[in-house]
Amino acid sequence: MSVFEEKMHCFKTIEDIKSSYPRRIRQIADERRSGKKVVGTFCLFVPDEIIFAAGADRVILCGGKNDTIPIAEQYLPRNICPLVKSSFGSIVNDGSLEIRSCSHFSMVDMVVAENTCDSKKKMYELLEEYVPTYVIDLPQRPDSPEALQYFLQELEKFKCVMERLTGNKVTSERLQQEIRSSNEIRRLFHKLYELRKKDPVPITGLDVLKILQKQYFLSPHDVKEYLNTLISEAEQIIPDGKHKPRIMITGCPMSGGNTKVPDIIESRGGIIVAEESCTGTRSFLDLVDEDKDPMLALARRYIRIPCSCMSPNDRRTDIILELANDFNVDGVVYYTLQFCHGYNIEKNKVQQALKKAGIPMLFIETDYSDSDIEQIGLRVDAFMEMLS
Length: 388
Ligand code: BJ8
Hints:
By secondary structure, the chain is α/β, with parallel strands linked by helices. 48% of the residues lie in helices and 11% in strands. It has 16 helices and 8 strands. The chain has helices at 3-7, 12-18, 21-33, 48-53, 69-72, 82-92, 118-127, 147-166, 172-195, 205-214, 220-235, 260-267, 294-302, 314-326, 341-356, 373-387; strands at residues 38-41, 57-60, 110-114, 133-136, 246-251, 271-276, 331-337, 361-366. It has a 4-stranded parallel sheet with strand order 2-1-3-4, with helices on both faces. A 4-stranded parallel sheet has the order 6-5-7-8, with helices on both faces. Helix 15 (341-356) links the parallel strand 7 and strand 8. Helix 2 runs antiparallel to helix 11, helix 6 packs parallel to helix 7 (118-127) and helix 12 (260-267) packs across helix 16. It starts with a helix and ends with a helix. The model is unreliable at 1-7 (pLDDT under 50).
């Protein structure tokens, strides 16, 4: 076995991240006992910097598990995306189906949501019955001249909501401090991704996904620590294996608990080298300008997130092509969750652009169940064979 293959799945940091859940839960429970407020979020458009600057903590509430979906389907239609159903099911779970959802779903003082896709928007209306829910209104044509100003006003309102929740003033100094802290995390992700440009790659996509999924769950302090140690570990590996088809995933986020498609890809001979998604580059690619007025700098950075809820969203296609080139990608797996209309429809534009660039693409639409694993596996096998 080569040095590369031997070391591929044994990062100590990844093992630590996998077992970080109980510690984080204890941390949140302690914070709440001492009067600190905890905010739950569902989306990258909600700036963490404002939450932290108000002295609150935050945890992401996006569900990636299948077992809470039946609970959600008592309230929501079956034909909406599994991420929305899984999240809602985790929050409203009263134990009646003998399924335990993760405890952090019941540990938030407020949900801060956002107007993105229809399923999420309507789910938030129901959520209000279970937990105080505040919705940031996003302008959905980000390139229009009025959009930035409108979004800035929305963030100002959100800042006031956080001040009321915590009783703390959000000062420019505190915001600047949090912007620097979040940028530090973004820079560390850039550094980690640089290592993934090597061929062979010193770390699997599945391992990187572990920290991507936890970045909005753990505290920023812990995320920085984990990133630093993971990078040092990965830097010491001398890649020595044979070339595997280098895959980029693009599309819907993969929330904690959902690793189905990366599992299939990497168990069938591919290696994931980049993810254009919210559990991927969308979370860290752009930094917030540290030299500008903090609220304006936040508005400018966040409004540019290339989510399919935005229209037009051509920036996403440009980024995909750029990443494919930078990471020397052999093929792209376009991943969408069932009933996610935004990413499903955007597939056409992305496919055309990739075709023009001569990059093969495999489209996978799936949910959180195991029922299609074999079928997806066969399609991935054929894709790998074509790329080899
Ligand atoms: S910024 S991708 S985190 S909205 S998968 S719930 S879009 S139907 S999660 Fe998202 Fe924010 Fe955009 Fe990112 Fe709707 Fe699609 Fe479901 Fe989705």
